[in-house]
Every structure is written in C-alpha cells, then in structure tokens.
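Justification of resources, computational component.

The compute hours requested in this renewal are based largely on the per-chain cost of generating structure records like the one below. Each record pairs the submitted sequence with a full structure-token output. That output is archived, and it is also reused by downstream analysis tasks.
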Amino acid sequence: MLTLRQIEVIRAIMVTGTVGSAARLLNVSSPGISRVMKHAESVLGMRLFSRRNGRYTPTPEAKDIFAQINGVYDKVEDLQYVIKRLAQGADSALKIGSVPSIANVMVPRAIAGVRRRFPNLLIDVDVLKIEEAIDYLLLGKGEVVAMSYHYEHPMLTFEPLAKGRLRCIVPERHPLAARSTISAREIARHPLIGIDPNDPYGRVMTAIFARHALDYTVSIRARFGSTVCALVTNGLGIAIVDEFTVAGDNWPRMHTLTIEEDTTFQTYVALRKDATLSSYCEHFISVLRTEMEQLAGGHDRRPGGSTRPRVRSRN
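The structure output for this chain reads:
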C-alpha cells in the first residue's frame, strides 16, 4: 500500500510535471522526491511516469491510480481543514458554570485566555448558586463548575483549584480606611454586612470569631460578594469578602484591609465522575487556576491598602 507521503509526492509530480518543481512545492530536495517516487513504483510494481522532454507524464497504466490518488488527497485536505477549525474552536462550544465570587473577575480573565487559544470557540457561562451546581452537572448543562467549597456526592468529583484569603472591606471615608491590616477583634467591634455562618467564606470568619470568643453584629445580610461591595461603597458598614471578588478593582470608593488571622480557604472545580473533559475545558481550568494563584500570590507579597493586585506580565 502507498503511504500518505508517497501519495503526496506522486500528486506533486502530477501537478508540477517535474521532480524539481515537486521538490519546491513540498519544500524538500529533488533527490528525496526521486527516491520516494521510485519506491512507490517498486511497491506498486509498475511505472507511474514516463519522462518526455524533461517533464514527467503519467503512464497509461497509472491513470486509474492517479484518479484515486486525487480523491485521497482531497479527503486529506478536508481532514486538515476540519482539524484546523477544531484547533480554533470553530463549530464547538465550552459550557461552564461558576459561583458568583469566582465568576465576577476570575472567570472572565480565564475566558480571555481561552479566547486567545481558541478564537472561534463559543463559550457559554452560567453564574450559579452553590445548590444549583449539582443539577447543572448531572443534567449535562455544562462540563465543570468553579466552586467555593466541596462536598461528598456519589456522582461528582472535586479537584483543587486555588487557595484564597478573606479581606476586610471598608468605605473610603471610614476611620479604618487609613489602615492596611486589621484583626478579627477589631472587626467584631463594628456592625458587619453579609456575614452568613452557612456560607463557605462565612464559616471561615465565624470560626475565627468563635475561637477568640468574639461577639459580632450583622446589620445587613447579603448573599453575593458584589452586592456586599456595593453596600460598603455606599457607606452602610464594613464587610468580609473573598479576595477574588475584589480582584478587579471595580470598587473605587472602597478600601481593602488584610486580616491578620489566617483566613485561607480552598476553591475547587466540580465535574461528573464519569465525565471526559474537552480540551477546551481542560485549558479553561488550567488558565483559571493560574489566574487565581497569581492573584492570591500577588496579594500575599504586598502590603494591604488597595483592591488592585500586582501588575503581571501576560506574554
């Protein structure tokens, strides 16, 4: 049987009429073209070309072979076209979900990275409550969900995404706005916005309060970090939010303080145990993890006092 390389060489000679022109077309040496052609003739047991006035013309016996070669070559070109479109994400879709704290800033950054790799990929993003993630995955609405915590489920698996920390946010004219760090004891002296003991991030802070036997007051309760930030910027109190929510520096009238106690939490991506992720989804998870780890690392290496992370290269 002829190999695809032999088919490519034979067709190049057919199209160009000379070994030298075929070599230039395929960007190889003329002797290499001659060797491949002779080997192909040896495999088939017949001459494919006759040389007349310096040009190669198909022999009568080879005409049917050449017709088939053209068909094979056309199919190879079709295959290459399909592969190229898949590599760019054409005619494909990436469907992902995320809880709001990760969806606000980090998911858009990750999608920008996916778009650079797959410019034609359709991307469908759903912002989900934690309790909606199970049905989203089990019903096949998306491939993964970025989560703020994990739990046991017979059909789902959770892979670590990135670690983060909580931050204290205060209005720009608040007495605490001149500070760069704050302790849990000092936080508990002020009415708080949004602390919910049942929320994954709320459990981290309430555990610290309990460990130090600190009483605290919640004046306004709001579930989502973006709502909490809006309440704080309107001077309605101080709050505790995760660092990923404030990563985009979208709240210019708000000041961020580093909490002195350890408020580390782990985020995850949830997926079905029987799922085989697309290459698009695997790339999304990789970019999202990198963005979140760089954000958390950038905050760790600088003093508190601003919601803006360190500037980093995006080569």
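The first strand starts at residue 49 and ends at 52. The chain has eleven helices and 13 strands.
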